[in-house]
Amino acid sequence: MQHLGRILPPLGLMLADALLPPRCLATRDIVDRQGQLSAKAWSAINFITKPLCQCCGMPFAFGFEEDAELSCGACLANPPDYDRARAVLRYDDASRAMILAFKHGDRLEGAPAFAAWMARAGADLMGDIDLIVPVPLHRKRLFRRRYNQSAVLALLLARNNGTPALVDALVRTRHTPPMGGLNRAARQRNLQGAIAVRPGRAAMLAGRKILLIDDVLTTGATAQACARALRRARVSRVDVLSLARVVQAG
Description:
Strand 5 (209-217), helix 10 and strand 6 form a beta-alpha-beta unit. The termini are far apart. The protein has helices at 2-19, 39-44, 73-77, 96-104, 111-121, 139-145, 149-161, 184-191, 202-205, 221-232, and strands at 84-90, 131-134, 170-172, 195-197, 209-217, 237-245. By secondary structure, the protein is of the alpha/beta class. The strands form 2 sheets. The protein has a 4-stranded parallel β-sheet, with helices on both faces. Strands 3-4 form a two-stranded antiparallel ribbon. Helix 5 crosses helix 7 (149-161).
């Protein structure tokens, strides 16, 4: 029976693949296994690589050695509330459909691959963290989506890294309107006082090194709001790891 238990899950997956062939996360082309990218999609995805800002993780366009430990002008002028941020790929035409399907379309089969990519992109952040914490969703939005995509990624990273995840450490105290199309200042106003440490969780966070998980880093306003809430709980460090980030041209 033990051997049968090990055989049945793969047989079930094979049957599912025969009935519903696995498709590329980005292009919907047929691929070998669930959660894969086709060769065409893989070549189009813009992964973020060094050189990049050692603080916010924004890639530098040119002019620096790959291993240069430099901060961008924005971080030097106005340091963020978090310590470091890293992201896997650029949020652009090649990745947008894949990420939106993951966020809003119940396309969770890509989550294991996304978590593996994030672990590689955030390897310099994950060495000595104490807790993995996702960006929270308001309960109304969570009810509509049925899952928090950042919490899904946080749990997978926790399992793979052997680090505890505290998925309810942060809470949205009020329902904020969608922020698509808003600039940095408008997003900051939108999030003012909207994120806090959940009552009863502050003692579990105090003195800990936190890895904050987000799906897309746009202006950084959400990550900043989460970092400020965590700082009020006296954490010792807040790093941010996201699947994608918006990279402004220029």
